[in-house]
C-alpha cells in the first residue's frame, strides 16, 4: 500500500472534515489547531509519540472530550454542537485505548451493545449479524463467556466486534493492537483491510510505526498537539519533523 | 449573648465529631458511616466501665479515646480494606464502603440499644462540672473544655496537614492516589493511622458530649452523622479550616432557629444546607476544586 | 394452605410492601444513580394518600393513585435538580431530601397530624390487591431488564462514558430512574399507609433507608429477583430463627457488612455466577488449554 501516490489516496467522497480543532486543559494545549480531511475508502493513521495529543483528538472527534474551538462535519452534517451519543447514531464507531467491556455480561451481549441504540433498520437480523461478526473476529468459541475470563487479546477482539456490528461508515481505533502478540497483530491488520473492502473507512491512532506503515494508506503525524506532517506512509516516516519527534529532541517522550 | 456562647459550645461538639470524619474522607477518600456508631459506642463503653467503678474525668476520656481508636482501626482492617481490595473502581468501592459502613454501624448500635433498652446513658464519675458566671454569662467547665479542645484540635489538625511530612503524604493521597503511591507513600499504613486518629477523635467527642449533657442516647450518633456530612459539604471536602467554619456556622444557624422558636424545624437546617451547598457551591466554602459533578 | 395463609397474612403483606420499597431504591442503583429518594417518595406517597382519604374523603384507589403520582412527580423534579451530583454526594443529597420530607410532616399541623402522625386512613386493601400491584411493577421492571434495554441500563451504570460513546442517552436514563423510583416508592408508601390506616413522621427516617438497602444488598442489586430474595429473607428470617430474634439487629448489621465485603452482587449474584460457571464449563476448559498451547 505504501506504493500509493498522494493523488490516489485523496480519491473518494469526503467523509469527515476536521477544521481547526483545539482542546486545551487549562494551560495545556493537548490538541492545538488540527485541520484534516478524511475521504471514504481509506485506512488513515495518526502517528505520534505518547502525549502528542492523538487520543485527545479522538476524544474530541467523538465529542466525549469537550473542545476549545473548531468544528467537525461528517457526511455534510456539522455535529460540533451535538451531544456525544449522536455521534454513534451518525455512523461513527470507536474503540478505546483501554478495554472497556461489561464484565458481568457475555461476550455476545457485549457485542450486541454496539447496535442496541441504532434505529430499527440498523438492528435488523441482530442474531445473525452478531454470529457473523463473532466469526470474523474469532470469538465464536467464547460467545457465552464473560470478558474477564478472556485473555487481553481476546478482549480487544470483542471490542472490535462491538465497534463494527452496527456497520459504521467511519471506525476510530485507539491503539487497536496494544498488548497483542505479533500473530494477533497481523490478524487484526488483515481484518482492518477486509473491513475497508466492505466500505468501512478507518482512522487509527497508534505509536507502533511498523504497524501503521503496513496497514495505512495515508498517515498524519502529530507532536505537541499539532500536525507536523501528512502524506503517504513512506513519505511521512521519512519526514524530518517526524524523524526528530521520534529520534531527535523528542526522543525522551517516546515510550 | 448566652445564645452565642451556647452556639459556640454546640459548634465545638459538632467540630470534634466532624474532624475525624472529615480527615478520613478528605484524605483517604472513605466516608465512614460507622463514625457515629464509634462515637456513641466509645461513650457507651465508658458508661459500662463506670457502672462498676467510679472513675475520674481523664480516665473516662482515655477509655473512650482508646475504644474509638480501636473500633475505627478494626472497621478499616476488617471491612474497608477488604472492600478496597475487591473493588474494580473508585465508584464501586465508594458505594460498597458506604453500605459496609452502614452495616458495621448497626452492630454497636444494636448492642447498646439492647443493653440500655434504648434509654439514654451517662457516666458515674468523680468529676463534677462547675458553673462559672461572668458578665451575666453562664458556662460550665465541661463546655469550656469542649470549646478549647475543639478549637485546639481543629487548628492543630489544619496546621499539621499543611506542614508536616505525613500531612503532605495524606493530602497527596487525597488528591491523586496513584501518583502518591508512585512517590512511595504507604497507603494502607497511612489509612490505618488516619482511621485510628479519627476513631480517637470520635471517642473524645462522645465522652465530652456525654459529660456535657449528662447522658446521650444510642441513636445520638446517627443524628450527628448527617450533621457532620452537612458540615463537611459546607466547609469543603479536604479543608480542615472549612470544617471548623462549617461546624460553627451550622451551630449558629441551628441556635438561631431555636432562638426564633422554630424548634421543630431545627433538623431541616442541616438537611437544607446539604442541599443548598451541593447545588450552589458544590466544592463548599473552602474546598479545593474537585470533580464532584459528572 | 388457607390456614397457613391466615396465620401469616401480615408477614405476606409486609414482604410485598418491603419488596416495593426495596425496588424503589434498587431502580436508581441499577441505573448507576446512588439515590435514596425512593424512601422520601414512600413518605410523600403515604402522606398524600392518607391526606386524600382523611381530609378529602377520597376512596382507597384514587388516593393510592394520587399518592403514587405526586411522589413520582416530586422525585422526578428532585432528579432534575440533583442529576449532576456524583456518588456519595448524590446519596447524601437524596437522604437529606428524605429527611426533609419527615421534617415537613412534623410541621404540617392538622394537614399531616404533626409529630403524632395521621390516623384514620382506613383503606380497603386486600392481599390480592397488593399482589396485583407488585405484579404490575415487577412485570414492568422485568421488561426493562430484558434484552437490549437491560444491556443499555447495565452500560449506563458500569461505564457512563462508554454508554455515551455507544449512543445511549445517559442523562435521560438517569432522569427516568428518578421517575420510576418515585412512582414505585410512592405506591409502596400509599399502600403501606392505607393498609395500616396510619403514618407517622418517624417512619420516614434513616432506618427505612437502611431496611431497603439491606434487602437489596443481600438479595442482589442487579435485578428485581434480588430485591425479592432480600425482602423474603429479612421479613421471614426472624420467624424461623429464634436466636436471631434476640440479636436481630446485630445479625442484620453483620449480614449487611459481610455482603458488602464478600458478595457485592448479593445472593442472586452468587447464584448467577454458579449458573454461568456450570453453563460455560466446556468453553472455559478449551480457553485454558488454548492458552497453555500458546505459551
From TrEMBL, chain A:
Q: Name one GO molecular function term.
A: ATP hydrolysis activity
List the record's Gene Ontology CC terms alphabetically: plasma membrane
Q: Does the keyword Cell membrane apply?
A: no
Q: Which SUPFAM superfamilies match?
A: P-loop containing nucleoside triphosphate hydrolases (SSF52540)
Check the UniProt entry and state the signal peptide residues, or none.
none
Q: Where is the ABC transporter domain?
A: 16-249
The keyword tRNA-binding belongs to this UniProt entry's keyword annotation: no
- Kindly give the PROSITE patterns that the UniProt entry links to this protein: ABC_TRANSPORTER_1 (PS00211), ABC_TRANSPORTER_2 (PS50893)
Q: Which UniProt keywords apply?
A: ATP-binding, Nucleotide-binding, Transport
InterPro entries reported in the protein's UniProt record = AAA+_ATPase, ABC_AA/LPS_Transport, ABC_transporter-like_ATP-bd, ABC_transporter-like_CS, BCA_ABC_TP_C, P-loop_NTPase
The name under which this protein is listed is ABC-type branched-subunit amino acid transport system ATPase component
From TrEMBL, chain B:
Pfam families in the record: BPD_transp_2
Location(s), subcellular = Cell membrane
Family statement drawn from the similarity comment of this UniProt entry: Belongs to the binding-protein-dependent transport system permease family. LivHM subfamily.
Q: Which organism does this sequence originate in?
A: Nocardioides soli
| Record's keyword terms, sorted | Amino-acid transport, Cell membrane, Membrane, Transmembrane, Transmembrane helix, Transport
Q: What is this protein called?
A: Branched-chain amino acid transport system permease protein
User: Gene Ontology terms, cellular component aspect?
Assistant: plasma membrane
Which GO molecular function annotations are given, in alphabetical order? transmembrane transporter activity
> How does this protein lie in the membrane?
Multi-pass membrane protein
Transmembrane stretches in the record are: 12-35, 55-74, 95-115, 135-161, 189-213, 225-250, 262-280
GO BP, one example?
amino acid transport
UniProtKB/TrEMBL annotation, chain C:
Which InterPro entries does the record associate with it?
Answer: ABC_transp_permease (IPR001851), LivM-like (IPR043428)
Membrane topology summary:
Multi-pass membrane protein
Q: Where in the cell is it found?
A: Cell membrane
The molecular function GO annotations come to: branched-chain amino acid transmembrane transporter activity
Is the Membrane keyword given for this protein? yes
- Highest taxon listed in the record's lineage: Bacteria
This entry carries the following GO cellular component terms, namely: plasma membrane
Q: What is this protein called?
A: ABC-type branched-subunit amino acid transport system permease subunit
Q: Which organism is it from?
A: Nocardioides soli
Amino acid at each position: 500500500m505504501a506504493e500509493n501516490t498522494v493523488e490516489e489516496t485523496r480519491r473518494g467522497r469526503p467523509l469527515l472534515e476536521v477544521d481547526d480543532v483545539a482542546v486545551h486543559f487549562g494551560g495545556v494545549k493537548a490538541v492545538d489547531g488540527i485541520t484534516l480531511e478524511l475521504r471514504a475508502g481509506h485506512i488513515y493513521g495518526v502517528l505520534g509519540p505518547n502525549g502528542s495529543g492523538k487520543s485527545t483528538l479522538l476524544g474530541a472527534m467523538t465529542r466525549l472530550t469537550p473542545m476549545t474551538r473548531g468544528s467537525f462535519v461528517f457526511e455534510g452534517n456539522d455535529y460540533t454542537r451535538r451531544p456525544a451519543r449522536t455521534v454513534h447514531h451518525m455512523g461513527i464507531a470507536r474503540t478505546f485505548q483501554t478495554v472497556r467491556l461489561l464484565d458481568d455480561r457475555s461476550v455476545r451481549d457485549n457485542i450486541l451493545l454496539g447496535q442496541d441504540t441504532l434505529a430499527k433498520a440498523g438492528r435488523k437480523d441482530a442474531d445473525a449479524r452478531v454470529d457473523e461478526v463473532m466469526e470474523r473476529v474469532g470469538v465464536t468459541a467464547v460467545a457465552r463467556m464473560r470478558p474477564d475470563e478472556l485473555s487481553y487479546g481476546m478482549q480487544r477482539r470483542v471490542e472490535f466486534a462491538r465497534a463494527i456490528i452496527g456497520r459504521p461508515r467511519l471506525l476510530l481505533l485507539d491503539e487497536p493492537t496494544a498488548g497483542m502478540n505479533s500473530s494477533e497483530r497481523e490478524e487484526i491488520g488483515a481484518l482492518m483491510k477486509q473491513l475497508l473492502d466492505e466500505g468501512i473507512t478507518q482512522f487509527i491512532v497508534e505509536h507502533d510505526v511498523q504497524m501503521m506503515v503496513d496497514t495505512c494508506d495515508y498517515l498524519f503525524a502529530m507532536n505537541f498537539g499539532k500536525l507536523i506532517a501528512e502524506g503517504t506512509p513512506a513519505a511521512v516516516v521519512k519526514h524530518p519533523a517526524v524523524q526528530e519527534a521520534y529520534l531527535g529532541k523528542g526522543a525522551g517522550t517516546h515510550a | 449573648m448566652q445564645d452565642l456562647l451556647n452556639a459556640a459550645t454546640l459548634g465545638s461538639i459538632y467540630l470534634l465529631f466532624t474532624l475525624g470524619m472529615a480527615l478520613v474522607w478528605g484524605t483517604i477518600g472513605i466516608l465512614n458511616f460507622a463514625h457515629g456508631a464509634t462515637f456513641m459506642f466509645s461513650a457507651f463503653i465508658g458508661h459500662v466501665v463506670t457502672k462498676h467503678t467510679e472513675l475520674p474525668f481523664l480516665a473516662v476520656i482515655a477509655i473512650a479515646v482508646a475504644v474509638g481508636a480501636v473500633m475505627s482501626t478494626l472497621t478499616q482492617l476488617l471491612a474497608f480494606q477488604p472492600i478496597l481490595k475487591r473493588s474494580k473502581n473508585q465508584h464501586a468501592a465508594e458505594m460498597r464502603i458506604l453500605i459496609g459502613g452502614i452495616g458495621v454501624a448497626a452492630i454497636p448500635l444494636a448492642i447498646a440499644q439492647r443493653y440500655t433498652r434504648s434509654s439514654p446513658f451517662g457516666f458515674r464519675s468523680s468529676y463534677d462540672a462547675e458553673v462559672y458566671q461572668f458578665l451575666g454569662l453562664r458556662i460550665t467547665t465541661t463546655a469550656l473544655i469542649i470549646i478549647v479542645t475543639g478549637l485546639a484540635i481543629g487548628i492543630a489538625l489544619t496546621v499539621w496537614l499543611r506542614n508536616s511530612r505525613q500531612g503532605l503524604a495524606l493530602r497527596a493521597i487525597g488528591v491523586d492516589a496513584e501518583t502518591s503511591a508512585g512517590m512511595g507513600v504507604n497507603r494502607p499504613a497511612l489509612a490505618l493511622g488516619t482511621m485510628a486518629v479519627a476513631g480517637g477523635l470520635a471517642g473524645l467527642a462522645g465522652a465530652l458530649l456525654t459529660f456535657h449533657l449528662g447522658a446521650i442516647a444510642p441513636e445520638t450518633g446517627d443524628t450527628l452523622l448527617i450533621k457532620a456530612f452537612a458540615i463537611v459539604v459546607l466547609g469543603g471536602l479536604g479543608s480542615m479550616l472549612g470544617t471548623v467554619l462549617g461546624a460553627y456556622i451550622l451551630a449558629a444557624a441551628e441556635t438561631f432557629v431555636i432562638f426564633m422558636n422554630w424548634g421543630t424545624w431545627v433538623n431541616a437546617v442541616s438537611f437544607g444546607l446539604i442541599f443548598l451547598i451541593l447545588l450552589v457551591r458544590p466544592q463548599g466554602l473552602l474546598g479545593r476544586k474537585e470533580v464532584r459533578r459528572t | 394452605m388457607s390456614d397457613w395463609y391466615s396465620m401469616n397474612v401480615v408477614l405476606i403483606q409486609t414482604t410485598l410492601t418491603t419488596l416495593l420499597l426495596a425496588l424503589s431504591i434498587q431502580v436508581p442503583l441499577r441505573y448507576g444513580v446512588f439515590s435514596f429518594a425512593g424512601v422520601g417518595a414512600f413518605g410523600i406517597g403515604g402522606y398524600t394518600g392518607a391526606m386524600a382519604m382523611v381530609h378529602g374523603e377520597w376512596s382507597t384507589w384514587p388516593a393510592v393513585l394520587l399518592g403514587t403520582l405526586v411522589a413520582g412527580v416530586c422525585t422526578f423534579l428532585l432528579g432534575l435538580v440533583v442529576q449532576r451530583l456524583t456518588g456519595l454526594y448524590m446519596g447524601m443529597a437524596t437522604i437529606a431530601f428524605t429527611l426533609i420530607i419527615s421534617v415537613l410532616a412534623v410541621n404540617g399541623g392538622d394537614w399531616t397530624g404533626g409529630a403524632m402522625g395521621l390516623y384514620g386512613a382506613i383503606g380497603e386493601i386486600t392481599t390480592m390487591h397488593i399482589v396485583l400491584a407488585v405484579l404490575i411493577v415487577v412485570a414492568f421492571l422485568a421488561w426493562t431488564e430484558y434484552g437490549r434495554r437491560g444491556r443499555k441500563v447495565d452500560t449506563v451504570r458500569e461505564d457512563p462514558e462508554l454508554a455515551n460513546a455507544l449512543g445511549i442517552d445517559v442523562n435521560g436514563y438517569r432522569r427516568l430512574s428518578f421517575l420510576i423510583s418515585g412512582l414505585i416508592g410512592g405506591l409502596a408508601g400509599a399502600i403501606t399507609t392505607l393498609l395500616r390506616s396510619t403514618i407517622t413522621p418517624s417512619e420516614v427516617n434513616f432506618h427505612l433507608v437502611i431496611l431497603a438497602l439491606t434487602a437489596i444488598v443481600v438479595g442482589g442489586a442487579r435485578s428485581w429477583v434480588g430485591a425479592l430474595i432480600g425482602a423474603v429473607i429479612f421479613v421471614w428470617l426472624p420467624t424461623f430463627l429464634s436466636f436471631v430474634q434476640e440479636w436481630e439487629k446485630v445479625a442484620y448489621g453483620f449480614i449487611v457488612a459481610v455482603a458488602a465485603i464478600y458478595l457485592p452482587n448479593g445472593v442472586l449474584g452468587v447464584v448467577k455466577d454458579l449458573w454461568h460457571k456450570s453453563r460455560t464449563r466446556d468453553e472455559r476448559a478449551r480457553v485454558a488449554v488454548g492458552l497453555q498451547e500458546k505459551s
